[in-house]
């Protein structure tokens, strides 16, 4: 690694290296609860809404007790709407409340509430899109974060992450970027690259550092 790339990567991790899961209060592990919470967060982040609002909405849902698929279903539709609204997620709150309930039912019916069963059954990149509200963008968000606990997907650096790499002058291929950090830091690197792709000022701060 060149000294310049080393400095850029260190600045990225220091300034922007918090994963979206961590920001939402998810202690990500390969267990049913955190994986489900990441699915919910990925759903919210994939809408055309600011990331900080999506994170706040996820926190509000979790704080209201909706931390697993069963509790999401047990909550009323209005309780889901209210939690989303508390997080500022008002533009899509009613539709999203419906989709969250439907997705929780699918997870319980098909995988007994455990996304690890989905992982065992086939291609998660395809199967994740079987959940309402999870399209290609949601899959990318989920796997960028989940690569730390599902290492077969590492390095998972999608087009948005590569856009961030270009913006701060780093290599533009997943394998080249993966060589710049320890494997354990790949989710943080992915999140940091997405953050600078979305925020020009953040990118400028990293470059100046």
Characterize the structure shown.
The protein is mainly α and 209 residues long. Helix content is 66%, strand content 0%. It contains 14 helices and no strands. It is globular and about 55 Å long. The two termini are 17 Å apart.
Task: Give a quick precis of the structure.
This protein has helices at about 5-15, 20-25, 30-45, 50-65, 70-75, 75-85, 95-110, 115-120, 125, 135-145, 160-165, 175-180, 185-200, 200-209.
Keyword list:
209 residues; mainly alpha; 14 helices; single chain
Shape: globular
Supply the number of helical segments: 14
**Alpha carbon gap, first and last residue:** 17 Å
- Calculate the mean pLDDT score and round it: 95
Q: Indicate the structural class.
A: mainly alpha
The sequence of SSEs as H and E is HHHHHHHHHHHHHH
**How helix-rich are the residues, as a percent range?**
55-70%
Percent range for β-strand residues: under 5%
Strand and helix layout:
Elements: H1 3-16, H2 20-23, H3 32-45, H4 51-63, H5 69-74, H6 77-86, H7 93-111, H8 115-121, H9 124-127, H10 136-146, H11 159-167, H12 174-178, H13 186-198, H14 200-208
Helix pairs in contact: 1-13, 1-14, 3-4, 3-10, 4-6, 6-7, 11-13, 13-14
